[in-house]
């Protein structure tokens, strides 16, 4: 119910009709060259691996992970994942087109999809390289010549495995082992696509590397796998933006991201996740940070039905630093269970977690975080700030912070605030002539502003726009 | 320019009557002062006219020209030409006065560029003696009482309403003079109807209102000219007991 004068609002609860109001809700017709039967068996994994012409060790890895997956239990915490019908998922889809390097080579149908999500425009302006993930295979990728000359590698994970098998073999599964959790095991068994980034020692990639991920086919599971290796003294910013078209039944996205940061290297990983409202987004993201290295996760979660994601940093070298800026927005029927983990394993390591969550129209936003400072990680510092904004009485916000401090000489700060959107603030802005939803959007964007300042301008603009779209769709 | 008319306005908040049978009108270019002790219902009247959802109109009418204000949401009232300078303006984190004004002006269908507005806001701020750094800070957050009042007047000057309600201008002499000077100027030059709410006689010495209304226990108990202000100064509101 709107609190101010009556207005007509349209509420669509039928998921089939949601696509009409969802800006990116369009399922394009694409021919698939190979579509695995529903459900997961050893045969599916073998078929997938042979389709990709993978080395034997990767098939072995996948089969071993499948055994782990089948023997592990589902997480019993977080959101409700009991409704996922794992047997109804296609575990591998391969579109009937080859990867293309130039825009001209990209088929028209696929081009249209990219145009709808603005990939070429973004590239024209300032992006160093663009790869778009279309279902399970990368269709389109480009990398500026200058980067290639510096030895920077930016490929799909499948290409990475083909072209740089020794680097992949050295690091794959070392940061997120296959047995880490049931969904990581599932990804390890059936991963497809994702990005492989390698930055040689001392090389700074000045502009962000960007990948857009999309799930296109109904019931297509997406299990991309990303590996980023930043050699000593290097610097890179990787951007992952997600948008999925409309579906009529639940879809699963379960990615694994592994980042290796060598001494003095700096990596920033920015995600703007806007999956459609029936997607389960269950992701394991982790970085290992060596001496004086820096990792920064910027994690924006606006879409999906349920997100469970806690980007982590293992601070293994002296003076390593980890940061997570987490933004979550939960609307009707959504549960954002997001946060961060910071594990201090070396002296003088520092970490910071800033979480801003918004819940509205019956949505639920949970912050779940861990700060662990192990014995020996003396003179470490960590700061956690969690701010939650609740827009109406139907919505919910929870905070689940865990601190495990096993060393004495450390500093840990924790601040948390929960505020309800003030009727007085709304009234004030409306008395100046702003409509209720515009006033709400202004208050919400103001609440997010300290975090937006930290995000590169064009992504901040995109986030602002998405927040405004969310607010317009708000039932108040 | 239109007149503000209130007829037999009776208002309750959470079941408690805060205004009873209040009737008066203000013509374009007229300055009317509404006085009364603390808790007499002055701010309730301002909030009701602007459409605060907590104030339930039990009976009566409020109109601007031919428009029935009571059927409009606060934003529609603002767009119809109403403005309320708040007694205690709330802080809005992450939003500065320029962002707010740009949205407010564009909501009225006016074409303003961010740069054009910036220049105009800076000009007005100079005229009002507002420190430039306040223009880029979070609105009303950590502002002094006087700074908040001046910021409300800045908004008044940019939004150019037909009726301005200035709710209690506080004790800051500098801000008080600014409020009075602007109210007089707006009434005279723009034919704005101005309702000034205060319980400090001092403001009225600067303002010289055309009429003075006295509100007590939610009822209008007296009206007159400046002589009424002098009488209240000498004897206080107890003369209405």
From TrEMBL, chain A:
Pfam families: SUFBD_core, SufBD_N. One of its GO terms (biological process) is iron-sulfur cluster assembly. It comes from the Bacteria. InterPro entries: Fe-S_cluster_assembly_SufBD (IPR055346), SUF_FeS_clus_asmbl_SufB (IPR010231), SUF_FeS_clus_asmbl_SufBD_core (IPR000825), SUF_FeS_clus_asmbl_SufBD_sf (IPR037284), SufBD_N (IPR045595). Coiled coil: none annotated. Residues 52-210 form the SUF system FeS cluster assembly SufBD N-terminal domain. SUPFAM superfamilies: Stabilizer of iron transporter SufD (SSF101960). Residues 213-447 form the SUF system FeS cluster assembly SufBD core domain. PANTHER family: FES CLUSTER ASSEMBLY PROTEIN SUF, UPF0051 PROTEIN ABCI8, CHLOROPLASTIC-RELATED. Belongs to the iron-sulfur cluster assembly SufBD family. This is FeS assembly protein SufB. It comes from Candidatus Gottesmanbacteria bacterium GW2011_GWA1_47_8. The lineage of its organism: Bacteria, Candidatus Gottesmaniibacteriota.
TrEMBL record, chain B:
Coiled coil: none annotated. Pfam families: ABC_tran. Keywords: ATP-binding, Nucleotide-binding. The keyword ATP-binding applies. GO terms for molecular function: ATP binding; ATP hydrolysis activity. Residues 4-241 form the ABC transporter domain. InterPro entries: AAA+_ATPase, ABC_transporter-like_ATP-bd, FeS-cluster_ATPase_SufC, P-loop_NTPase. The keyword ATP-binding applies. It comes from the Bacteria. PANTHER family: ABC TRANSPORTER I FAMILY MEMBER 6, CHLOROPLASTIC. NCBIfam families: sufC. Belongs to the ABC transporter superfamily. Ycf16 family. This is Fe-S cluster assembly ATP-binding protein SufC. It comes from Candidatus Gottesmanbacteria bacterium GW2011_GWA1_47_8. The lineage of its organism: Bacteria, Candidatus Gottesmaniibacteriota.
């Amino acid at each position: 119910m709107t609190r101010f004068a009556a207005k007509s609002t349209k509420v669509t609860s039928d998921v089939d009709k949601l696509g009409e109001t969802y800006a990116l809700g369009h399922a394009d017709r694409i021919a698939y060259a190979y579509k695995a039967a529903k459900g997961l068996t050893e045969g599916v994994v073998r078929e997938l691996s042979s389709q990709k012409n993978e080395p034997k060790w990767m098939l072995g890895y996948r089969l071993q992970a499948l055994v782990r997956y089948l023997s592990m239990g589902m997480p019993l915490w977080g959101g409700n994942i009991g409704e996922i019908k794992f047997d109804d998922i296609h575990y591998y889809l391969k579109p009937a087109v080859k990867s293309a390097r130039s825009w001209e080579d990209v088929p028209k149908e696929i081009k249209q999809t990219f145009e709808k999500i603005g990939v070429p425009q973004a590239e024209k302006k300032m992006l160093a390289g663009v790869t778009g993930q279309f279902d399970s295979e990368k269709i389109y990728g480009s990398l500026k010549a200058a980067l290639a000359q510096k030895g920077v590698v930016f490929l799909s994970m499948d290409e990475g495995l083909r072209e740089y098998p020794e680097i992949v073999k050295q690091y794959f599964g070392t940061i997120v082992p296959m047995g880490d959790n049931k969904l990581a095991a599932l990804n390890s068994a059936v991963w497809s696509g994702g990005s492989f980034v390698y930055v040689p020692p001392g090389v700074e990639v000045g502009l962000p590397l960007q990948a857009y991920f999309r799930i296109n086919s109904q019931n297509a599971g997406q299990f991309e796998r990303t590996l980023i290796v930043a050699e000593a003294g290097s610097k890179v910013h990787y951007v992952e933006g997600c948008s999925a078209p409309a579906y009529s039944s639940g879809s699963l996205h379960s990615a694994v991201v592994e980042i290796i940061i060598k001494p003095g290297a700096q990596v920033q990983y920015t995600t703007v996740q806007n999956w459609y409202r029936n997607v389960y987004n269950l992701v394991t993201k982790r970085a290992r940070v060596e001496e004086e290295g820096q990792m920064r996760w910027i994690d924006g979660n606006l879409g999906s039905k349920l997100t469970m994601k806690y980007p982590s940093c293992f601070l293994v070298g002296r003076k390593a630093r980890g940061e997570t800026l987490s933004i979550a927005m939960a609307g009707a029927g959504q549960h954002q269970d997001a946060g961060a983990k910071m594990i201090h394993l070396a002296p003088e390591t520092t970490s910071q977690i800033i979480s801003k969550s918004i819940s509205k129209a019956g949505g639920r936003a949970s912050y779940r975080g861990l700060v662990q400072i192990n014995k020996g990680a003396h003179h470490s510092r960590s700061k956690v700030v969690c701010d939650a904004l609740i827009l109406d009485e139907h919505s919910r916000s929870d905070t689940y912070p865990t601190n495990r401090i096993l060393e004495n000489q450390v500093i840990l700060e924790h601040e948390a605030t929960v505020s309800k959107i003030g009727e007085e603030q709304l009234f004030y802005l409306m008395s100046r002539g702003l409509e209720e939803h515009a006033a709400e959007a202004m208050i919400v964007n103001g609440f997010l502003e300290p975090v937006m300042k930290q995000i590169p301008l064009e992504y901040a603009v995109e986030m602002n726009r998405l927040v405004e779209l969310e607010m317009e769709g708000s039932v108040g | 320019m239109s007149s503000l008319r209130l007829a037999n306005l009776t208002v309750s908040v959470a079941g408690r009557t805060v205004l009873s049978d209040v009737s008066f009108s203000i013509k374009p270019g007229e300055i009317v002062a509404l006085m009364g002790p603390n808790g007499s219902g002055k701010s309730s009247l301002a909030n009701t006219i602007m459409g605060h959802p907590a104030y339930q109109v039990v009976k009566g009418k409020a109109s601007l020209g031919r428009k029935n204000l009571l059927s409009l949401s606060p934003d529609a009232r603002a767009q119809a030409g109403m403005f309320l300078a708040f007694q205690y303006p709330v802080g809005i984190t992450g939003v500065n006065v320029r962002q707010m004004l740009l949205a407010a002006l564009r909501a009225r269908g006016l074409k303003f560029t961010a740069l054009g507005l910036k220049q105009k806001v800076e000009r007005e701020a100079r005229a009002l003696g507002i420190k430039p750094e306040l223009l880029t800070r979070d609105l009303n957050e950590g502002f002094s009482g006087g700074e908040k009042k001046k910021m409300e007047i800045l908004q008044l000057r940019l939004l150019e309403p037909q009726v301005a309600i200035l709710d209690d201008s506080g004790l800051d002499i500098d801000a008080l003079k600014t409020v009075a000077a602007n109210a007089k100027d707006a009434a005279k030059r723009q034919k704005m109807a101005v309702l000034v709410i205060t319980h400090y006689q001092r403001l009225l010495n600067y303002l010289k209102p055309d009429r003075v209304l006295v509100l007590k226990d939610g009822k209008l108990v007296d009206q007159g000219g400046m002589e009424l202000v002098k009488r209240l100064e000498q004897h206080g509101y107890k003369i209405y007991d």
